[in-house]
Design a protein that fits this description.
The protein has about 90 residues and is an alpha/beta fold. It is about 30% helix and about 20% strand. The longest helix is centred in the C-terminal third of the chain and has 17 residues, at about 75-90. It is globular. The relative contact order is 0.25.
Length: about 90
Amino acid sequence: MTVKGFRRVSVEEFVERWETSSLLECPKLRGEFGVWLYPIPEDPCKSGDCGIVTCHNYKRRFEDGSRLVVLERPLPHLLERHLEIWRGEREVG
């Protein structure tokens, strides 16, 4: 199902995709086969709270919403864990 340009999927499908997807430069998104995954059913890019000012979506609505996959209800613990991993990789790199 697509709502506001985002593809919404079941929790089960999202978690399966999330667990096999790759980390990206973005602290909120993970990548899988030409789409981005975000574990909360909203636009992840409009707030600018990530601080990555060089991103083309910084403080804008997600430019290519058809490639953004979100789940039907929030799983914020996935995002929190992802941020921990992302921060750890940034400190090492």
